[in-house]
């Protein structure tokens, strides 16, 4: 009920703010003619006084009276009735429009809106049973609590991994730093911080993320998350053999039911494939870096003859299997190194679309392209 009262008062105030100038304009228009007539009468009286005092000659006084009389006659001959009629019609139309707008708006809301829907204040939603709340409501509840109690280390400890799971990596970094500052460092908090920093950077493991993972290993030498990401950092640096060896060593220490076994297996296979490609052992998947470097020194004709088939095969394979993030990197790099900037941008755009613009693989591809001098796709 309070909502409707407030809405009605606001609507009335808005209407009055527009109507009052219209009404005042009409009153001002009606009084303009009478005001001018009073001015002319005062002027006639002033002329008579000046003539009586001898300040002006009789002939000059007569001329002044005649001029003022002509002005009074012109004032009486103005088409005030038509002007007043037009002004009145315009003001009436304006008033009608001002009054019609809220009536139409309220009528449309009654027809299209949901006036009978009960209100859902945020405070009431946050106060209901957590089991009946959505993830967003639970996060909002935690954020409201932490805004009032910023030193609640347990709250930050709970919220940080939730931020990470729902994709709010930047907020997760802040939350992990807060819980570490208040509660102290642990392997889980440091590894979570490193993962959040990497996610915020589009999957790239920066020096800050690597430092967090190393602190996690110092607190818990067998921390799987820290080991996995540090091996991934080696792979990003091109140290594929060392990365594969680190992952293999992890497999030897993990229990059979560890959830890390599957991603480690895929990472090892990818590292071995990339190492094989870099060595030039799989030309069907595209040219190796050595072949590209050699081709760059050739004439355009010889270079095109050498790599056209390999690049075409790589492109064809990616069209058949577009989920290959490393393949898209190789295709982008091949075109860029050989000076085909337009083809490199096209490959980058197709790769991002195939991998999903919001996916970690696509963000990694964009970061890789940026390192080659290509702008990120829109």
From TrEMBL:
Gene Ontology biological process: cytochrome complex assembly
Record's keyword annotation contains NAD: no
Entry keywords, A to Z: Cytochrome c-type biogenesis, Membrane, Repeat, TPR repeat, Transmembrane, Transmembrane helix
Intracellular or extracellular location(s): Cell envelope
GO cellular component: cell envelope
Domain Cytochrome c-type biogenesis protein H TPR: 129-259
Entry protein name: Cytochrome c-type biogenesis protein CcmH
Species the sequence originates in: Neomesorhizobium albiziae
Source lineage: Bacteria, Pseudomonadati, Pseudomonadota, Alphaproteobacteria, Hyphomicrobiales
